């Protein structure tokens, strides 16, 4: 279960963020959602779980391709948004539940594909959540994680995390790509394959949809007074795309895929999204965490 302070911060932020978050262009970005869906290899037989589903945009994207999608999230206001979105889109194959993702309230192997986007940096123990995702994923199914991947450079990673924590107090820690891959390994998943894309955002628009503590938005870490590039994207922003999908022989376990994206905002740069898809290589269902 989420720690009490973390739980309170999540509920406080995401109750208030529900509307601005779910209407933000970067969050609704169709191309990014398509990339995630494609990288996952979802098909019409898949039973999908969206972990910390927020306003249900990821669940909706998967609902177009899968048999059924369940979304779970701690914040009732987010689940409300998700239900409205599903109704507006006319989905009849999605279900949303208010609940904590640690532990997940589902049996072992209940889903063939388990996905989570932009949530791992909010978890005090992301490894435990990933193990839960593996537990509820059927053997041979796929586990997909999309999240901020910070620089491997410790000082840059720390600066990013400091800034994000000031901007959004429910932020815990974004991991580097190597750390995310390490979580996969320790959860018993194969090495994920990496795909990159870029999502751009500006500091002001990020600030406009979160609720920093008093004075925190003006901290040097968030809005540096010295930088001329204060609120704009740097000209050198790069978009990297590396995508490797391995073919899957019929009847064989799927090979892992992983994608990352890089976002550069204001005077900072940080890698923003890592969506790792990996096969669940357990051959038997387990009753506990993998
Ligand atoms: C940044 S939003 C991402 C929402 C959605 N996955 C998306 O990409 O659009 C993070 C979400 O994680 C949820 N969350 C954080 N910790 C959680 C927990 N322990 N259990 C369930 N949901 C949690 C929050 O309520 C919030 O809706």
Task: Write the SSE topology.
Blueprint: H1 4-23, H2 25-28, H3 30-40, E1 47-51, H4 57-63, E2 68-73, H5 76-89, E3 94-98, E4 111-117, H6 126-136, E5 137-147, E6 149-150, H7 154-167, E7 175-176, H8 177-186, E8 196-197, H9 203-208, E9 257-265, E10 268-279
Parallel strand pairs: 1-2, 1-4, 2-3, 4-5, 6-7, 8-9
Antiparallel strand pairs: 5-10, 9-10
Bound molecules: S-adenosylmethionine.
Quick tags:
290 residues, alpha/beta, Rossmann fold, 8-stranded mixed beta sheet, two-stranded parallel sheet, 9 helices, 33% helix, globular, disordered C terminus, binds S-adenosylmethionine
What does this structure look like?
- This protein is of the alpha/beta class.
- The chain has one domain (4-277): 3-Layer(aba) Sandwich (Rossmann fold), CATH 3.40.50.150.
- The chain has nine helices and ten strands.
- The strands form two sheets. An eight-stranded mixed beta sheet has the order 3-2-1-4-5-10-9-8, with helices on both faces.
- Helix 7 (154-167) links the parallel strand 6 and strand 7.
- The longest helix has 20 residues, at 4-23.
- The chain is globular.
- The model is unreliable at 227-274 and 283-290 (pLDDT under 50).
């Amino acid at each position: 279960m989420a720690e009490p302070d973390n739980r309170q911060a999540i509920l406080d932020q995401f109750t208030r963020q529900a509307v601005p978050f779910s209407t933000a262009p970067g969050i609704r970005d169709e191309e990014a959602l398509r990339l995630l869906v494609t990288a996952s290899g979802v098909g019409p037989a898949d039973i999908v779980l969206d972990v910390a589903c927020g306003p249900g945009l990821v669940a909706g994207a998967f609902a177009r391709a899968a048999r059924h999608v369940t979304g779970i999230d701690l914040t009732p206001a987010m689940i409300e948004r998700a239900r409205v979105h599903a109704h507006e889109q006319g989905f009849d194959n999605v279900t949303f539940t208010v609940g904590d993702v640690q532990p997940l309230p589902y049996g072992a192997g209940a889903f063939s594909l388990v996905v989570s986007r932009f949530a791992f940096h909010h978890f005090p123990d992301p490894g435990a959540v990933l193990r839960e995702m593996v537990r509820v994923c059927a053997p041979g199914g796929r586990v997909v994680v999309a999240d901020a991947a910070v620089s491997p450079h410790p000082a840059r990673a720390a600066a990013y995390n400091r800034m994000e924590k000031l901007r959004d107090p429910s932020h815990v820690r974004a991991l580097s790509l190597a750390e995310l891959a390490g979580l996969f390994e320790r959860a018993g998943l194969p090495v994920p394959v990496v795909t990159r894309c870029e999502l751009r955002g500006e500091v002001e628009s990020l600030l406009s949809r979160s609720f920093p503590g008093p004075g925190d938005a003006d901290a040097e870490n968030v809005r540096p007074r010295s930088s001329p590039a204060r609120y704009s994207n740097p000209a050198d922003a790069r978009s990297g795309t590396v995508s490797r999908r391995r073919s899957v022989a019929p009847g064989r376990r799927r090979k892992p895929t992983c994608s990352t994206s890089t976002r550069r905002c204001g005077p900072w740069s940080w890698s923003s999204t890592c969506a790792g898809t990996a096969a669940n290589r357990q051959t038997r269902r387990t009753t506990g965490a993998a």
